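Internal ticket - ligand job 451, calcium ion:
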Amino acid sequence: MHKVFNMFLKLIIAMFIISNMLSCSDNNDNIDQEPNVILIFTDDLGYGDLASYGNPTINTPNLDQLARDGVKYTQFYVTSPVCSPSRSSLLSGCYPKRIDLHKHVIFPQYRYGINPDEILLPELFKEAGYHTACYGKWHLGHQEPFLPLQNGFDEYYGIPFSNDMSRKEQILRGNKKYPHYLPLMEGNDTIELDPDQRLFTKNLTERTLGFINKHQSDRFFIYLAHPMVHIPLYVSDDFLNTSKRGLYGDAVEEIDWSTGQIVEVLKELDILDNTLIFFSSDNGPWLPFKTHGGSAGPLRGGKGSTWEGGMREPCIIKWPDNIKDAPAVDHRVWSSMDILPTLARICQLNLPDNQIDGIDLFEKLIQEDVLFPERPFIYYSSRGKIEGVRVGKWKYRQQKDTAFLMNIEEDISEQFNLIHQFPELADSMKMIMNNFDKKMDAEMRPHGKLN
Ligand SMILES: [Ca+2]
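stdout (structure tokens):
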């Protein structure tokens, strides 16, 4: 048994090292001009919530068009089934545990956040001369050292944590003693408490369009992190009662509208061809909220769980025309941690000195018939506990005393536990998972803390 495991592990490590070496080659032939980048990151949107991912009742024509003009990824993962840890990976390229942000979300009473010493994606863009803006939900710490302006963004407008962490909203839900207000922030200043959430999507879109207009002749990086469709759901009057899927559908459709507006402005300014647009969500749908939560489509589970529904997300990328000749549907496995190093390659940014977990997939992403490097993908629970690993088509998952082994490619809904058929494989994967976690324990860098 031990022999099988050792061989399996050695094979994976060797493949990982080789692929890292390959992806570090210096070929930027396809890039003759560094593109603008817009990352659109929604909140709690499920794998099955867009028409292009099979939703029958939510109309998302603009996102569907983006998927047709670009690439639709079917096996894109985030690193946590909840907000703060997942967001930390997108901007740092690391597993949340490496930067000590794995233990659930940051609540208003907490006094920690992303360590200001971590070098985040916006800092890389800023250093390379890009104009940078963050609009929407931050959730990586709400005291000044942790906020966007101190971490690479020229501009920030939005809320520093989740939209349900609001006194007004909690009172509506019967929680009369809730002491915290939801700040609406402009830069480092709070400009309003418990703001009117019906205007969120619209206002954030206007900010985004304004920034694009202002910097149309330069290069820009925009992180548009919609607070929707996290509960409580709100839409502007134009979208209220307009979808077949109730308020949740209305909110998704307003985000779809927003994306359409952005594409339209880029087109008008004649910079769409040289802009990379990425669209995804921080974690899966919040299922207990029933019709106010989304759908993971064929995937099992949702927000908060390490079943696929919690961590596999819709992902669409509209590539700049000179980089990739889309369209395509891409079934290869990758994650939000790979965004930072891949964008660093495309946009000629210097990588951080600190170790990261994501890898530069540029060379492979622009080709359609090559495999991505085989490497384990690790599933951490909402509270940062190790719960699973995926290697190729196999997923091992352990929750409390129950262990599962699933063939994810043949069993997308995780209905068939094959652990008794392949006990040695399960043992090997469990070992990979636990060894990875030990490595993270040893290499973890501290989060930022107020005295
Ligand atoms: Ca979320």
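Auto-summary: Residues 89 and 201 are 23 Å apart (CA to CA). The chain has eleven helices and 17 strands.
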